[in-house]
Amino acid sequence: MIERARVERCLAEEAQRATNKNYVTRALGVEATVDVEVHELPVEPGDWLVLCSDGLTDMVEDEDIHLTISTFGVNLDTVSKQLVQLANDNGGRDNISVMLIQVLDLFPARKGILDRILAWFG
Hints:
By secondary structure, the chain is mainly α. It has one domain (2-121). The chain is 44% helix and 8% strand. The chain has a two-stranded antiparallel sheet.
């Protein structure tokens, strides 16, 4: 639990310090290929992932995002609409995009044939 909180805090601090945080550095449909950035984070059942633009995080405090999720968490659509509304109510100076993911259950990662063969020797 402490490790996950540290990772979240580091990512948030990195985003706040970014000098080019308003620049689009990657976009789908612009080039033939896209350089995808992947982060793996540990999750537990009940965890929430909020993928959003800075239009949300610049206008709504983390505590208010958390309160909105805990208040309306039964319905993901309602949570996202409430978050967008909060950002707009606070000035809405930028585009506001929100995607929510709730971890319901853990499942093992799919293993390819090479992983399964290597497991025989491990």
